[in-house]
Automatic annotation (TrEMBL):
Its main location: membrane. PANTHER family: SMALL-CONDUCTANCE MECHANOSENSITIVE CHANNEL (PTHR30221:SF1). It comes from the Bacteria. The chain crosses the membrane at residues 18-39, 73-93, 105-130, 159-182, 194-221, 290-311, 323-348, 360-382, 388-410. Pfam families: MS_channel_1st_1 (PF05552). Belongs to the MscS (TC 1.A.23) family. GO terms for cellular component: plasma membrane. InterPro entries: MSC_TM_helix, MscS_archaea/bacteria_type. It is a multi-pass membrane protein. Keywords: Cell inner membrane, Cell membrane, Ion channel, Ion transport, Membrane, Transmembrane, Transmembrane helix, Transport. It is found in: Cell inner membrane. This is Small-conductance mechanosensitive channel.
């Protein structure tokens, strides 16, 4: 009987001791489950309303959206805290100790994560608003139309200046915000390299902007100079002089009879009619236009060198300078060769006109001799294998001299024999004193 009473007292004490603990643990788990579900639902709704997250999950299953995934993480974290609290109520210290240390670490890291997320979110919203304000202001000022009128759309593509500047403002605001958010995390192994990269990018942006401004200014100046040359040179008679010079180089020949199949007739389509029909009218490049384009390319190339220096690209700047120097030599050498071809044609044409076309050999010889001399001078100015050019020019002159000597010797063999015989007769008739 005493044993039965003792067992009853033991079980009664056990129930009174553990029943409240078990009920408290169950209540803690239930409350943690409810809070976790509520946080999961609220977090999924809030995050999925963010424009970036909404676009990223627009075509996906809502159950697998970004908000739902983050909500699941929050739910299980809250439930884990509830399990630890329930185990603490049950006095299971050996099980709770490692979980407590892990949760303490997570709990100490959560404020930093929340702070970083909040900083980045606020910065993202501010950057987006600033981008839209800048784009709206530039569109109201017709900046895209001015860019199209300036001709820069041919070089920059279809991207409008308002969109480009708006994106630039967005990046300039978001990079410092991202650096601040990473520093808020306090993870040195992650933040130090990321902050260093972002700081380098942020420091390079002013140089990039300066280089872009230099290139834009060079483009405007080059385009203006090209238009000025195309307007001024024709007024000075430059195009007419080049046309006259090229006509002088043309050899006098009988013009070919017109082909009836291709001859123009009264019903031909005029340029105005072609434009009205949507066709294209050929616009041949004039000599002044060619000079203007060369001047524009040269100005843009010089500004590209300065832009490379602003970007601190020393190797690229040196390479561009060497290319410009070589291009200058090549252009001048090409001008010398072209001038030689023109002068040779003019001289040959003058000889043909003076002799009535009877001495074609002399005109051809003068033409090609002038072209050869100009080619040698042009190639030497270009710096293309000076020794080879001199050797080739010497061989050409030597071959021409030998050919002339052989032609004279073979062609005047009989006359030379008569002269030699006359000299011999004089020697034999002269008495020796």
């Amino acid at each position: 009987m005493q044993t039965t009473d003792y067992d009853f007292i033991s079980w009664n004490a056990l129930v009174y001791e553990w029943a409240p603990k078990a009920i408290g643990a169950v209540l803690i788990l239930f409350v943690a489950w409810i809070i976790g579900k509520a946080v999961k639902w609220a977090l999924a709704k809030v995050i999925n309303r963010i424009p970036g997250a909404a676009k990223a999950t627009a075509s996906d299953n809502p159950k697998h959206s970004i908000g739902a995934s983050l909500g699941d993480v929050a739910f299980w974290l809250i439930l884990l805290f509830g399990v630890v609290a329930a185990l603490g109520v049950l006095n299971l210290g050996q099980v709770v100790t490692p979980l407590n240390s892990m949760l303490n670490l997570v709990a100490s890291f959560v404020p930093s994560v929340l702070g970083a997320v909040l900083i980045f979110f606020i910065g993202f919203v501010v950057a987006t608003l600033a981008k839209r304000v800048v784009e709206a202001a530039l569109q109201a000022a017709n900046a895209d139309r001015w860019l199209e009128k300036s001709g820069l759309t041919k070089a920059t593509g279809s991207t409008g200046v308002s969109s480009a500047i708006g994106t630039l403002v967005f990046v300039l605001i978001l990079i410092p915000i991202t650096i601040a958010a990473l520093e808020q995390l306090g993870i040195e192994s992650l933040t130090i390299p990321a902050v260093a990269v972002l700081s380098t990018v942020l420091a390079a942006i002013p140089h990039v902007l300066a280089a872009a401004i230099v290139l834009a200014v060079g483009w405007f100046i080059g385009r203006w100079v090209a238009q000025l040359i195309e307007r001024v040179l024709p007024a000075t008679g430059f195009d007419r002089s080049i046309s006259s010079l090229t006509s002088l180089t043309a050899s006098t020949s009988t013009p070919a009879a017109p082909n009836p199949a291709t001859a123009p007739y009264a019903g031909d389509v005029t340029p105005a009619t072609a434009r009205a029909l949507g066709g294209e009218v050929s616009n041949p490049m004039t000599p002044s236009g060619i000079v203007g384009k060369i001047a524009m390319v040269a100005i843009v190339a010089f500004t590209a060198v300065e832009a490379a220096k602003l970007l601190q690209f020393g190797t690229i700047a040196v390479t561009l300078q060497e290319i410009l120097a070589l291009a200058g030599h090549v252009i001048v050498g090409g001008i010398i060769i072209t001038a030689g071809v023109l002068i040779g044609g003019v001289l040959a044409n003058l000889i043909n006109k003076g002799t009535g076309g009877a001495d074609g050999f002399a005109s051809t010889l003068v033409r090609w001799a002038t072209i050869a001399l100009a080619t040698a001078m042009g190639l030497r100015f270009m710096g293309i294998a000076d020794d080879i050019v001199l050797l080739a020019f010497g061989l050409i002159l030597g071959a021409a001299a030998i050919a002339a000597a052989l032609a004279f010797g073979l062609g005047g063999r009989e006359a030379a024999g008569k002269v030699a015989q006359m000299w011999a007769d004089k020697v034999t008739k002269t008495p020796l004193q």
